[in-house]
Write a structure and sequence with these properties.
The chain has 102 residues and is mainly alpha-helical. It has one domain. Helix content is 50%, strand content 0%. The protein is built from four helices and no strands. α1 packs across α2. The longest helix has 18 residues. 4% of the residues are buried.
């Protein structure tokens, strides 16, 4: 997991024009404020940076895959396999559609 820096969040140098409103419990608010204080960030800056880091992780988990050796071997074997002939697909892609006909 990436380390949270005490510096300003990556988005701090951009003009902030959007507003997000959230509701938290009293315990969550205390925890967030304490963490912001300890990292010498404003509560807002701490929340933005933390949320952006978590968002990047969530998105990365949808685009990066981790394989064990067996899964990697199966994956590379599938990539190395010669393409299979698909006559019905070839016909579909080479036959003019109803919108192509005049």
């Amino acid at each position: 997991m990436p380390a949270v820096s005490a510096a300003k969040p990556k988005v701090a140098d951009k003009t902030r024009s959007q507003r997000l409103n959230i509701r938290v419990t009293a315990a969550q608010a205390r925890l967030i404020r304490l963490a912001a204080e300890q990292t010498r960030a404003t509560t807002s800056a701490f929340l933005v940076e933390s949320a952006c880091i978590r968002a990047e992780e969530a998105l990365a988990s949808k685009t990066h895959f981790l394989y064990n050796e067996e899964q990697w071997a199966a994956f590379t074997a599938a990539l190395d396999r010669p393409p299979a002939l698909k006559p019905r697909l070839r016909r579909l892609l080479t036959t003019p559609g109803i919108l192509d006909r005049a």
